Amino acid sequence: MSTVAVVGAGAMGEAIVAGMLAKGWTPADLVLAVRREEHAVALREAYGVEVTDAVSATAKADVVLVGVKPVDVPGVLGEIGPHLRPDALVVSLAVGLTTSALEAALPAGTPVARVMPNTPAQVGAGVSVISAGTYCDDTRLAVVDEIMSAVGTVVRLPEKLQDAAGAVSGSGPAYVFLAIEALVEAGVHLGLPRTTSTELAVQTFAGAARLAAETGEHPAVLRERVTSPGGTTAAGLRQLEERGLRAAFLAAAEAARDRSREIGG
Ligand SMILES: NC(=O)C1=CN([C@@H]2O[C@H](COP(=O)(O)OP(=O)(O)OC[C@H]3O[C@@H](n4cnc5c(N)ncnc54)[C@H](O)[C@@H]3O)[C@@H](O)[C@H]2O)C=CC1
Ligand SMILES: O=C(O)[C@@H]1CCC=N1
Predict the structure, then answer these.
(1) For 40, 63, 90, 144, which has the most beta carbons within 10 A of its beta carbon?
(2) What is the pTM assigned to this prediction?
(3) Could you give all domains of the chain from N- to C-terminal order, each with its CATH number?
């Protein structure tokens, strides 16, 4: 197995570390780098992994997973570039940043891959979109696939679709959480105790998503099965349509895609 350095073990980076350890990697396969010492102490305690600085972690790794915010990526790449092992692979989680921009910030010929993960990775239910840069061959992309498979499903896409994919699956959990929150509040408005309304709404989203995933049926067909002619669901759906639910999702996805392109420069 490869030695994997995770530079920037925040929400996404830590989820990947936890998932890898749960799926058979050992602490010796991992080396982490974070900025704050108290964070390093917490990570060592939680996972028994080595936590050091970005340069030392990079020097030990076959794969360097960069999990810092997009604005911090150029600085990190400039710092670690001279210390990469020959043939080491750099994997970026950053939204927007293209593999060509990443390659330009690294020594010439560095293999690079771009990943768009999402936070359900924290419970092993993520979906990651992966794309190879110019020097990342199939064997290396298979390593990225293996790592990200530890936290959920993996979809390989041409890089030109990464901004769109990020708008759906990268940001998507936030749209879903907002929708859950709104349904909980609606239930409270109708008189349900808040804990009951939360349980009903969360289980409904989880169950509906599982039904769609396991049956593979078109969502419209599944929706029709809930909607009796002249019934309660039809009355509710009419309100969602009249209030522009579809248009709202389309506008949200376009805005997220455009912001991703803007971040990428
Ligand atoms: N949070 C999300 O839902 C998603 C995030 N992403 C991408 O993942 C990346 C990370 O995002 P989050 O995990 O949400 O951010 P985060 O802020 O939770 O984690 C970033 C971590 O990097 C550390 N850090 C910053 N500079 C560092 C350096 N020089 N050396 C070592 N550590 C350093 C920070 O202290 C922090 O712990 C971003 O580029 C983002 O675009 C992609 C998809 C989804
Ligand atoms: O909001 C963001 O910029 C990050 C990338 C995708 C999800 N969260």
Answers:
(1) 90
(2) 0.97
(3) 4-162 (3.40.50.720), 172-264 (1.10.3730.10)
